[in-house]
Amino acid sequence: MWIASKIGFFSIVQKDAQTHIRARVKKDLENLIEEIGIEGWSEEDLTIQEWPGADYRFRLRIHPDDLGVLFQKLAETIDYPNFKNEIHRRPDQAAKSPAYTTLWGHLHSLQERDQILPVDYQCYDLGVGRLG
To answer: Which of 36, 46, 98, 121 has its CA 20 to 30 A from that of 113?
Structure first.
């Protein structure tokens, strides 16, 4: 699951009976720890791990039962009327603005075409070449 929030961009997956909260930018996980104040998480849960060479270099690993609390805390950070403007306003997130705008545009074009992607579709070209 991808989550684009005002404090960072996260990819959340299940691996080895743990929930991995992954980020490409370490500051995003630091924001997660500092700004949402996850009470009850262990020191191990709050330790940002670096996995050199991994698709997402930085990660936290938590118990799957703690994911609901994380989502609730992230929801409480929504205090803005326009997400893209909020990202542009924040110095620690502004560099992501072009990527979010590109993603918004591609998803908007799907809405305008009112179509479902074909079954054999692998990856949409976001200007970096076809993937998959």
So the answer is: 98
